[in-house]
Amino acid sequence: MNRDANHFRNQDSHSNASMPIHHSSSAYPSLRNITIEDFQLSSTGLTEEQRAQALAQLHEYLSIQKANFLGYQVNQQLDYEDDLKPYLNYHVNNVGDPFIDGNLTIHSKWMERAVLDYYARVWNARLPHNPADGESYWGYVVSMGCTEGNLYGLWNARDYLAGKLLLEEHTAEEEARVASFGGHPRSLLRRLIYKQALPLDGQPHAYTPVVFYSEDTHYSIIKAGIVLGLHTFYQIGQHYYPNENPLAPGQPWSKEVPSTQGSTGPGSIDIPSLVKLVEFFAAKGYPILICFNYGTTFKGAYDDVEAAGKALMPIFQRYGLHERKVYYDPSDPNQFDLRTGYWFHVDGALGAAYMPFVEMAYNAEKIAQRGPNFDFRLPFVHSIAMSGHKWIGAPCPCGIYMTKTKYQLRPPDNPEYIGSPDTTFAGSRNGLSAMILWDYLAKTSYEGEIEKALYTEKMAEYAVQKLKELEQHLGESLWVERTPLSLTIRFKQANPNIIFKYSLSSETLFVNGQKRAYNHIFIMAHVTTQLIDQLITDLRQPGAFPSQPTVAKPPEIAPTRHPKHLAHFPHLGRGFH
Ligand SMILES: *Cc1c(COP(=O)(O)O)cnc(C)c1O
Questions:
Q1: What ranges does the record give for the region Disordered, renumbered to this chain (predicted)?
Q2: Which of 136, 3, 195, 96 is nearest to 422 (CA)?
């Protein structure tokens, strides 16, 4: 069973594949209850018996970890096997636009469209999608999780605000015909040209979007900004207006919009700060791109998108950003696209999936509180992204991106526009994700979702109560906190055995100058009182909470020599470690 490095050498000696310089099972992390060597692959594959042994270990490992899973906002209650098991042997590919079937016929796009319609309703968008109706929604089921939805949203926002245009190219056919005289066949591609709108006189910043997000933002937003070459208010402010920080005149700019103890609890974006920062750039003619969090990763806070929009609209009006003309034909001043000079993206990875049902529960007087409005009811919301594997639960990461048809980059007001099917980020797309989401929604009702939301709320209250009782029992503060309506509860960091057992995620916060290591749990639909009780039992044992060295003052973050290029880019991400 224990195949060593010699085994590899003998097996692979006739192939042209290279050899490891030493056995990789000593080079990679070891894992409790897994014999890594049993999983090594070689040129001959494994015998049936070896494979069965390895798979038995896999099954045992995942079953145990699943049963105790508490640390992340990933629902472990899955029920897809009966309906979808056969489709592991199908390659289902939803390549291209979900509303155009295309020639790759092994797809599940009609199911994808049903899923999109479902969320269009729940998020109060206009449906069905209609390419001729700009107010109707457009979206797709992403192959990654919410990260892809955020990346796509910011990409769309960047091009929209930066005055990028997609124009039809009419010369393709003639070019291909002429080129084919050379003797080589020429393929005829229907092409769109990616263009930059004409600069606007006296408005040098008109096509330089400025990005805003709060200090509780998920790292995928920051990553997307870097991939897309976007600049934050901090980068532009610190570089071009170093002494004009509107939040603290004369002081360096803050890297992100401050978060606050808002009505929706700690961790939501501080609207007065946001307004001051946005006004500074709007007054200079910069288009504004704001990423809101709807359920922050660590504290589970909800940005009040509606209050932010209401506070900002008069500013956009004042500086002509509520609507502007983007000219695309130098010879014809009547050719322009009407666009907003701002974009509101809502990162609703977890919250967008369940807050609509909390609202329904609230309307039915089944719960005392609801989250702020965030969806397409708000005329200023441009795009929403959501993870499919978090609230809903799925065997693989998946999610949804949704916007309005009029915000898609496409040939402006061109009645002949047929549509580039290549509207999505990925080329090949995971058709299984759409089937999974469809299967879930086909088995649930709004009533079922409301019950699920109420259940998790009740379970979160239960966990808080049990942790508070434990505090009493231990006679020490465990720093237990929960943002109202959030599904996450944070408390003092436990020992590594407990962290591993429950897959707890960790975060370090400074509180009044004191460095504190926290864990948090997420109360998803699979969490039961038994699981919480079991955690409490483990936390009650001596040594459950290792003592933490306290640091009097947070260390200064060393500035680089070129602070103007400094992006605040967490190495490990926020919450997901
Ligand atoms: C989880 C999360 C993401 C990223 O989603 P993935 O599905 O992991 O790609 C983005 N934003 C927030 C607020 C999240 O909680």
A1: 1-22
A2: 96
The topology (CATH level 3) of 109-442 is Aspartate Aminotransferase; domain 2 (3.40.640)
CATH number for 446-539: choose from 3.90.1150.10, 3.40.50.300, 3.40.47.10, 3.40.50.410.
3.90.1150.10
- Specify the 3-state DSSP secondary structure of 546: coil
CA of 251 to the centre of ligand 1 (A): 32
Query: Range(s) for CATH 3.40.640.10 in the chain?
Result: 109-442
Closest ligand 1 atom to the C-alpha of 294? 13
Q: What is the DSSP string of 401-443?
A: EEEEGGGS---TT-TT----S--SSSSS-BHHHHHHHHHHHHT
- Cα-to-centroid distance, 148 and ligand 1 (Å): 9
Residue numbers of the chain with a pLDDT score lower than 50? 1-2, 5, 9, 262-264, 412-420, 554-555, 558-566, 570-577
pLDDT of residue 189: 65
Q: Give DSSP secondary structure letters for 238-255.
A: HHH-TT--TTSTTSPPPS
Q: Which of 154, 219, 220 to mutate to test the pocket of ligand 1 (most atoms within 8 A of CB)?
A: 220
Mutate which of 141, 293, 298, 347 for ligand 1 pocket (most atoms within 8 A of beta carbon): 347
If one residue of 218, 386, 437 were mutated to test the ligand 1 pocket, choosing by the most ligand atoms within 8 A of its CB, it would be 218
Whole-model pTM over 0.85:
yes
Protein residues whose CB sits closer than 6 Å to any atom of ligand 1? 144-147, 218, 220, 293, 295-297, 347, 349-350, 387, 397, 399
CA gyration radius, the chain: 26
Whole-angstrom CA distances from 470 to 467, 499, 544 are 5, 17, 12
Q: In this structure, which amino acid lies at residue 399?
A: G
